[in-house]
């Protein structure tokens, strides 16, 4: 195995510090080095990666940094994290971060995702605002339960979290108590399922952050709905969708 990159506290010359390929966050360069090892076969499919403590020692960083890097790799489809059982490399054909796909294939997929996001921007910001006005105690309880499912989904292969993510957005529509809005959301649910992996991966890329923060952002939308603050619920949903749109519109 090649030596790991120097940690943030180790001495480096000015050229390496200013190199554009050097990520700004410690979790970024830990993720990048682990991804390189997954690509070159250092960790073959099915192989168990070193423990969090071992990676902390190897890279000279804290546990939160390693966990953030692992969360990003999981969102990219490169590893599977089993609660209490360690982290394992996935086969190369597993879904990866959108930026790692073939350019033409990703261009077509991005165009479809962009159209879905345009519909979501119009539909879901209005749903969030109306849900804040019309939600009932049972709606609030249902949304809270879905957030708990999303949090539990951080510890599996991602499927549970993705399903809860879709159900949460549908639950916001149901909290409007407008049957037409619910029908409209349900009509795009299948497309929403198909696009959710890309949406989640792009959100993580845009935020340079972890899946835990994605759950917190959904909770912030929920809290505005729960308080009955229609304007804030609309604003937070708008910001949530805008982050993904921003990455899609950046030149590659």
UniProtKB/TrEMBL annotation:
What SUPFAM superfamilies has UniProt attached to this entry?
Answer: GntR ligand-binding domain-like, Winged helix' DNA-binding domain
Q: Which UniProt keywords apply?
A: DNA-binding, Transcription, Transcription regulation
Gene Ontology molecular function:
DNA binding; DNA-binding transcription factor activity
Glycoprotein recorded as keyword: no
Domain HTH gntR-type: start-end pairs = 24-92
Per the record, the domain of life is Bacteria
Annotated InterPro entries? GntR_C (IPR011711), TF_FadR/GntR_C (IPR008920), Tscrpt_reg_HTH_GntR (IPR000524), WH-like_DNA-bd_sf (IPR036388), WH_DNA-bd_sf (IPR036390)
The question of whether Coiled coil is a record keyword is answered with no
Which SMART domains does the record cross-reference, listed alphabetically? FCD (SM00895), HTH_GNTR (SM00345)
Annotated stretches, region: Disordered: 1-28
Looking up CDD domains in the UniProt record yields:
WHTH_GntR
Q: What is this protein called?
A: FadR family transcriptional regulator
What species is this protein from? Paenibacillus antri
The taxonomy runs:
Bacteria, Bacillati, Bacillota, Bacilli, Bacillales
């Amino acid at each position: 195995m090649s030596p790991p990159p120097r940690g943030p506290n180790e001495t480096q010359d000015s050229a390496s510090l200013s190199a554009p390929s050097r990520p700004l966050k410690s979790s970024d360069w830990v993720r990048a080095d682990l991804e390189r090892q997954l690509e070159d076969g250092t960790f073959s499919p099915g192989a168990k990666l070193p423990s969090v403590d071992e990676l902390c020692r190897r890279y000279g960083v804290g546990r939160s940094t390693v966990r953030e890097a692992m969360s990003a790799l999981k969102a990219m489809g490169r590893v599977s994290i089993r609660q209490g059982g360690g982290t394992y490399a996935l086969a190369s054909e597993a879904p990866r971060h959108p930026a790692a796909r073939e350019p033409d294939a990703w261009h077509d997929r991005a165009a479809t995702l962009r159209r879905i996001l345009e519909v979501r921007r119009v539909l879901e910001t209005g749903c969030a605002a109306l849900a804040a006005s019309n939600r009932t105690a049972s709606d609030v309880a249902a949304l809270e339960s879905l957030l708990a499912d999303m949090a539990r989904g951080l510890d599996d292969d991602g499927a549970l979290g993705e399903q809860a993510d879709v159900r949460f957005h549908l639950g916001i529509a149901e909290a409007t108590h407008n049957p037409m809005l619910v029908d409209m959301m349900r009509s795009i649910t299948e497309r929403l399922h198909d696009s959710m992996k890309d949406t989640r991966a792009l959100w993580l890329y845009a935020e340079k952050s972890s899946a835990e923060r994605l759950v917190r952002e959904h909770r912030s939308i929920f809290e505005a709905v729960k308080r009955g603050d229609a304007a804030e619920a609309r604003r937070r949903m708008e910001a949530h969708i805008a982050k993904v749109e921003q990455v899609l519109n950046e030149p590659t």
